[in-house]
Amino acid sequence: MPEELNIKPLRCRHCGGELPVMGQLVTFRCPSCLNYWVLAEEGLEPTFVYRAVPEGAGGAPAAGGELFLPFWTIEVDGADVRRQMETAAPGLGGQVGWIESGDSLKIYIPAFRSPNTYAYLKVGRLLTRLQPSFGIVRSEGDGRPVLCALRVNEAVALVDFIFFAALPDSVQRRGETLEKVRLHPTRPPRLIEFPFTARGASLVSVIGGFWISGRLVESAASLVE
Predict the structure, then answer these.
(1) Residue 34: how many CB atoms within 10 A of its CB?
(2) Whose CA, among 26, 86, 183, 216, lies 20 to 30 Å from 112?
(3) φ and ψ at 42, to 5 degrees?
């Protein structure tokens, strides 16, 4: 006889308040104590949500009307990555300019839902290639849900995939060589929301200036107000 399915409400571990369920989103904000929680393998875990701020914005979040798309941002040791690539094939690291840009590399794992999984490849590799400069502020919430549908362990599993996708085609063709390169996070992943604005059928990133099709983001048209 199959076991009975026992459904329990999601409750804040801080104050006991009931958390709002938002479809397949895995990040919740308690309406009572305003703490953020993320659904992990062992249940709810506390988390912080940050918003990216363009350089020169004085620490202020972007103005109203933006769509904030969440990314798990994972930092790795750039010097270690270069060393691994040079060990695998001398001169290989020198073919990737953005790896030379600093000792700390950020790998961006899109965390929003999409009807097309190509979004995870395209947007993640664009931000990773750009290595943009920006500030971050703790999100205090503005009534909108955090559109995160990817758990942190799932994001960590995608780090190597996004990194390799961001490499030039000439380097990607060295598949057997790249198998020897492994990325190791230097700090816990951070959930950062990046502002995008609607422009016709496209979404334009406020940070970096690149654009993506609005169709890559599930229900994007209804989320931009």
Answers:
(1) 13
(2) 183
(3) -95, 10
Structure tokens at 199: 């422009």
- Is the separation of the CB atoms in 193 and 139 below 8 Å? yes
How far apart are the C-alpha atoms of 111 and 126, rounded to whole Å?
A: 15
Which residues in the chain show pLDDT less than 50? 1, 5-6, 61-63, 220-225
In three-state form (DSSP H/G/I as H, E/B as E, the rest C), the secondary structure along the chain is CCCCCCCCCCECCCCCCECCCCCCCCEEECCCCCCEEEEECCEEEEECEEEEEECCCCCCCCCCCCEEEEEEEEEEEHHHHHHHHHHHCCCCHHHCHHHHHCCEEEEEEECCCCCCCHHHHHHHHHHHHHCCCEEEEECCCCCCCCCCCCCHHHHHHCHHHHHHHHCCHHHHCCHHHHCCCCCCECCCCEEEEEEEEEECCEEEECCCCCEEEHHHCCCHHHHCC
Region of residue 121 (phi > 0: left; psi between -120 and 50: alpha; otherwise: beta): alpha
Residue 58 confidence (pLDDT)? 55
Backbone angles phi, psi at 146, to 5 degrees: -80, 120
pLDDT at 3: 54
Give the C-alpha separation, 10 to 19, whole Å: 5
Say if residues 44 and 53 touch (Cβ distance below 8 Å): no
